[in-house]
Design brief:
476 residues; globular; 15 helices; 39% helix; eleven-stranded mixed beta sheet
Length: 476
Amino acid sequence: MAKSNQSLAVAGHSALQIAGMIQSGLVGPTKIAEATLRGIAAANEPGLFLVVTSARARAEAVASTERFRAGRPRGLLDGVPVAWKDLFDLEGIVTTAGSRVLARQAPAARDAAVVRRLQAAGMVTVGRVGMTEFAFSGLGLNPHYGTPRNPYGSGEARIPGGSSSGPAVAVAKGLVPVSIGTDTGGSVRIPAAFNGIVGYKATYGRYPMDGVFPLATSLDSLGVLCRAVSDAVLVDAAMRGRVGSEVARRPIQGTKIIVPTNVVFDDAEPVVIERFEAALNRLAMAGAKVERRPIPVFDAVLDLIARHGALGTAEAYALHATRLSGPEAAEMDQRVAIRMRGGASMSMIDYVAICNARARLVADARREIGTDGLIAFPTVPHVAPHLKPLEQDDDLYFQMNARTLRNSMLGNYLEWCGISLPCGLDVSGLPVGFLLSAVGGADEELLGFALEAADSVRDVPSQCRHLLIPARATGF
């Protein structure tokens, strides 16, 4: 690989941009890894990087450098850094899932399956990042390891969103170009929206879950937090064990976009609606066919939960029932424990009723939307709220958590794939997310459209452009 003495600022760049620097010989994987580790050390905060895998990162970067020198790189992602949410097994490290309770467990005997796949693609693991305890909240708070601060907004700290709080903040701050999270009710898309980045939630079952600590196995899915849709496309292919992606760019012209007129705009902040509508108008001007109509399955999902209870809560309780009834419960975040205990009241009759009804709703939605249709609405109906009041007031916490999860959890119940794209800032500099979804299995169609649409969706008013977080000037 060619060497250069030129100083390059790469922190805050996308994975594809960093890959271009490596492929062109401007900088090698080892220098990228070292600069990434320095950046993490300089900018780390409570709740962000819980484990920095310096030795592993250096070894993987050296191996990547040797592949390039031999003319045998593994693809575009070879040498690109990646961080993992604190529930993916990394060999030799205890998987804590954001909990003190699990800190006493034995270290993982091997990497999670998707970790192995990204390593096979040449990506360099630099550490594990924080999350809500047991992934059970959309707000991102963690009293054990700390809550990473949303890098946007001024004044009092704002929440990062959850449960993939650390992955989103690490990407938004420019410390890594890619971080991998999980999404059971919005845990990739919500923090992506709050932190002004891209958050792609794959269709349920798209990737292997071996070595990933679960929350609700009927709803858990994986996703990518990154700075550009092109990064999500590359990482998606690698996480599926593919050498190249099957995603093709899908033109905006003629694509049907359904905008629901029920549920998702209820109690939405005016600025969220304004930014969403402006983005939607830009897509319509580019030729998208926008249809506004009710989506009956949305009301049906909410009615199902009201009548029988929340599926995710019941499955989380089943997983942690022994822990919740023993001494370990006192070591848990009590807000997480209280919400999980709510699943104890669900009967087997209710659980079966939910599962049967859900299967019908998934099929109904597929017929209504079609495999070529897309659904668009705000990722979250509000911008990131202040952190401190939520730490101090449990009732406010529960209320805000339910409101934050409402829009995104619909996609999990219906087994949709989805991608949150940044669509602007409010006057305080807080990001707004634009959620595009498609029926299960239509990931290629969704990502192909997002590749074309992201620039149209993203717009920052001139008076807010100075509030954008610039790339960090880290030299190599």
